[in-house]
Amino acid sequence: MRPYLVTGAAGFIGFHVARRLLDDGHEVVGIDNLNDYYDPALKHRRLTILEERPAFTFVRGDVGDRHAIQSLFDRHRPARVVHLAAQAGVRYSLTHPEAYIQSNIVGFFNILEACRHAGVEHLVYASSSSVYGVSTATPFSEHEDADHPVSLYAATKRSNELMAHTYSHLYRLPTTGLRFFTVYGPWGRPDMALFLFTDAILHGKPIQVFNNGDMRRDFTFIDDIVEGVVRALRHAPRPDPSWDSRAGDRATSSAPFRVYNIGNNQPVDLLRFIAVIEECLGKQARKVLLPLQPGDVPETAANVDDLMSAVGFTPSTPIETGIPRFIDWYKQYYGLR
Whole-number mean pLDDT of the chain? Predict the structure, then answer.
């Protein structure tokens, strides 16, 4: 039985997806470069958990290294691929743009090429809600324009979707892009709001609240993201013979290509998000109100009708459930119990 490949397996989402696939009885090959964008110790801890499973094989490597990727595919011949490796972070892209081109563009090209030549049955890859850019037509729909990003990170993710469509069209490689909406939960990234706020409040430090708190986010719990990824992986897209380019539908195609939103479909005010953290910690935050940052948008909200129609699942975990689960993990991880 050919294994599944998860790129970015030591990352936040990659770790959870790999663990779920192992739980489902699959052999999993994971690749990660274990870079220091954030504390590598967290990545190593996640990896240690995965490596306890006999059906998991880890390869240390960079998706931007064409020869490393080709060698991995030649050796393991994965049946399906979940591509989650990327240089993350909107604000970091303002100061380190070259990292995004190398990882998100060159790296994705290497994955597409390897999938094409290996006869991969289905490539599922991470896109982002950030592709919607300046759009104010909420909730965001996959069928509408997503061609005005406001950060290089977003531009690379939109580029991934266009590159995937090209390979689906030319080589009939089934590809599914998943636009994640503000993922949070246990084992989350230290550069994300929930981790930053929790850490600062517990240590009596102020938190930065952008756009003076006038922001709304479609916070999506990690378990819901994983469920959506796994279900999407099972449903390789087929060409839509009725697709008409004149209709301008951007989510479907005459190629085996699809794009779906994965979001909670319940945007939350940032100040409410902070209030739930305060309630869980029993401590008040010292807020430093700041203007909207370059590359940020005031609101995100996902229309998930297509996801429900395709795989029979809609994310639904409220922050009142998800935030306490993160904080329980955080306290345990840092020995605060």
Answer: 96
Residues near 298 by beta carbon (within 8 Å), at least 6 away in sequence? 211, 214, 215, 216, 292
Task: Work out the angle at residue 259's Cα, subtended by the Cα atoms of residues 247 and 66, and round it to the nearest 5 degrees.
Answer: 125
The active-site residue out of 37, 92, 100, 153 is 153
Span 153-189, pLDDT tens digits? 999 999 999 999 999 999 999 999 999 999 999 999 9
d(CA 84, CA 61): 14
Residues 22/50, Cβ–Cβ less than 8 Å: yes
Left, alpha or beta for 53 (phi > 0: left; psi -120 to 50: alpha)? beta
Beta bridge partners, 257, equal 175
Q: Are 29 and 50 in contact (CB under 8 A)?
A: no
Question: CA 324 from chain center: how many Å?
Answer: 21
Query: Which secondary-structure segment (H or E) carries 260?
Result: strand 257-262
Q: pTM, whole model, 2 decimals?
A: 0.96
> Is residue 334 among the annotated active site residues?
no
Ramachandran angles phi, psi of 23, nearest 5°: -60, -30
